[in-house]
Design a protein that fits this description.
The protein is of the alpha+beta class. Among the domains are: 164 residues, Rossmann fold (3-Layer(aba) Sandwich); 46 residues; 62 residues, no CATH class. It is built from 13 helices and eleven strands. Strands 1, 2, 3, 4, 5, 6, 7, 8, 9, 10 and 11 form an eleven-stranded mixed β-sheet that branches. This is Brix domain-containing protein.
């Protein structure tokens, strides 16, 4: 028998043996948009998904009917730990970041934002490399060490949204992006920036740098290549623009040309976008609904908090009561369905078992079917022939026969014709 060939999708799947432990433990995320339809909000959602790659659903399809419960129900099998929701309202654009499945939830107001396409188009030298999005970015938090419960919660939430980096085993070639979050204690806002990281060699002229990196120089104005390499005044980009504080000594060998191990190189950042200016509004204990732990705009007394807590508990109890009633009603409906089904089956059986069939079954069970027919045939033979039949003539066992009402008359007629 020919062996069944695997499909194309199965052959291309690299995780046929199961997901690795590193992939399972990495924080995954959903990024969705809700509220009033807005093209810019949808585009911003896609840009934020790009920031969260590769551990996010970049092609996630959503509908208006989808609720947060729908995403929570599938979060467990997919190892999703965070959800980010951009919601457009009449008052403005808001961003909610929640830890799945039980919270907490942080609500930010997006005061200003710029899409990734606008940020990239404003740069003189653009650097967008698709390979950079195959690995998670480096997270840098600034000024989150102040006092206040909200700062600690924000810092832990932002850190846990991205996988941790082990300094002893990290590969520098995989660190291609950086996410910077700067907290301004005066305005109480957070500046969100997304950069691409580039490493450039330091201490070589511009001509030597071009040759080392494999670029073909224009030698039309020079008689020899030595003139191009030794021409004064041509400094490399890193020497002209970079500050000496950006120079680092590489601990590993880099893929890019000109950067060698234990050599000096310059770290350059190129903004990828999007830009966000966020203001923390409130922190909730649960998932999108729960006790408010912190609110920036509203302050309530202890009595008001206790009253709200009691109302929440009463709503919770009422919800549980309704849920229990629904479960009891479902059980009753299932029992009624079963009883109706049993009754209908009994009625069908009664219709099928007619009086004749019941008589046949009784005759078969009592073993009288064959004897009655044998006695009738012997009596008929005596009347027609006038002699006693042989002992073996009607005593042959031919299986259980039906009563005469079915075939008795027909069999007698055939035997009478044979005798004539």
């Amino acid at each position: 028998m020919a062996r069944k060939r695997k499909g194309r999708c199965v052959r291309r799947n690299k995780n046929q043996g199961g997901e690795s432990e590193e992939l399972v433990q990495a924080p995954h995320s959903f990024v969705i948009s809700k509220g009033i339809p807005d093209g810019n909000a949808v585009e911003l959602t896609k840009d934020f998904r790009k920031v969260m790659e590769p551990f996010t659903a970049s092609q996630l399809k959503t509908r208006k009917k989808n609720t947060i419960k729908d995403f929570v129900s599938i979060a467990g099998p997919l190892h999703v730990s965070h959800i980010s929701v951009f919601s457009k309202t009449e008052l403005g654009l808001y961003l909610k970041i929640a830890r799945l499945p039980r919270g907490p939830t942080l609500t930010f107001k997006v005061q200003n934002y710029s899409l990734a396409r606008d940020v990239i188009s404003s740069l003189k030298k653009q650097m967008v490399v698709d390979e950079a999005f195959k690995h998670s970015p480096l997270v840098v938090l600034n000024s989150f060490s102040g006092e206040g419960m909200q700062l600690k919660l924000m810092a832990s939430m932002f850190q846990n949204m991205f996988p941790t980096i082990n300094l002893t085993t990290v590969n520098l070639n995989d660190v291609r992006r950086c996410v910077l979050m700067n907290y301004n204690p005066i305005s109480k806002t957070i500046d969100f920036r997304h950069y691409g990281i580039k490493i450039a060699p330091v201490g070589i002229s511009k001509g030597v740098k071009k040759v080392v990196q494999g670029k073909v120089p224009n030698l039309a104005k020079f008689s020899e290549i030595s003139e191009f390499l030794t021409k004064s005044g041509l400094l490399s980009e890193s020497e002209v623009e970079d500050d000496p504080s950006n120079h680092v000594t590489l601990a590993q060998k880099m893929i890019s040309r000109g950067n060698v191990e234990a050599g000096k190189s310059s770290v350059k950042l190129s903004e990828l976008g999007p830009r966000l200016t966020l203001q923390l509004i409130k922190i909730e204990e649960g998932l999108m609904d729960g006790e408010v732990l912190y609110h920036e705009l509203i302050e309530k007394t202890e009595e008001e908090k206790e009253e709200i807590r009691k109302k929440r508990e009463s709503r919770k109890k009422l919800k549980e009561k309704r849920k229990k009633i629904q479960e009891d009603n479902l059980k009753k409906k299932d029992e009624q369905k079963k009883s109706l089904k049993e009754k209908s089956l009994e009625g069908v059986k009664k219709k099928v078992l007619t009086e004749t069939d019941i008589g046949m079954m009784k005759a078969v069970s009592e073993g009288k079917g064959e004897v009655e027919e044998e006695d009738d045939d012997a009596e008929y033979y005596r009347k027609e022939v006038g002699e006693e039949p042989d002992k073996d003539l009607f005593s042959q066992t031919r299986g259980v026969k039906r009563p005469r009402t079915f075939y008795g008359f027909k069999n007698k007629k055939l035997k009478k014709d044979k005798l004539k």
